[in-house]
Amino acid sequence: MAGRQRRTATGWTVAGLSFSQRELRDLLVAWLALGLAFTFFLEREFRRIVFLQFGGLSAGEILSTFAVSLLTVGVGFLLHELAHKVVAVRFGQIAAFQADYRMLGFAVLGGLAGFLFAAPGAVVHRGRLTAKQHGLIAVAGPVTNLALAVVFLVPFIAALLLSTSGFLWEVARMGLQINLLLAGFNMLPFGPLDGRTVREWSTPVFLAVAVPSILLGVGALFVL
């Protein structure tokens, strides 16, 4: 472990990836803010408590929803961004995640209001790249979400077969749903989304990833 994780004067080096103290702070704040935003969004009673309209929601229920959000939404968003960083560094880039504190604040306030739009930040990198390298960096995020969806699919199927419910069921269901939604949404070929960069590099690769991602994302939205 000592060779894979090392503290430096300015941050940490983990498995060959360097993280500054600012980047680690941004990752932590984004993770916690997303967890809080989705907790507000998912728990209507929690929103009432914040506005001093006390209901019957227990502290245990609030903490459970917060934990589920951290383990699913937060992990899905941040591993998506870290996948961009890993591939960018492989191509010799200087890359770091930068949180968008204004958008994180907007996400938390939106969750309180009962709607949600989350854009926690992005991996910023600099250096000269080919169109293929740009495309590979972009597609790494959605592909990571698809891989995470497979990870959550196993306990989801097990819970269905065993007819179980509770915390683990919610983690599996929400983890599967949110990662399919993230993959599908980010593969849309518009604006700053990953799909546009991938399409500009390679239409066949774009279609191979975007079509199943978008279809699965729509399915997750209406079925799960």
Automatic annotation (TrEMBL):
Keyword terms, alphabetized: Cell membrane, Hydrolase, Membrane, Metal-binding, Metalloprotease, Protease, Transmembrane, Transmembrane helix, Zinc
TM stretches of this protein: 24-42, 62-83, 103-124, 136-162, 174-193, 205-223
Gene Ontology biological process terms in this record: proteolysis
GO cellular component terms listed in the entry, alphabetical order: plasma membrane
Subcellular location: Cell membrane
UniProt membrane topology term: Multi-pass membrane protein
GO molecular function: metal ion binding; metallopeptidase activity
Cofactor: Zn(2+)
Protein family according to the UniProt entry: Belongs to the peptidase M50B family.
Name of the molecule in the record: Zn-dependent protease
Originating organism: Haloarcula sebkhae
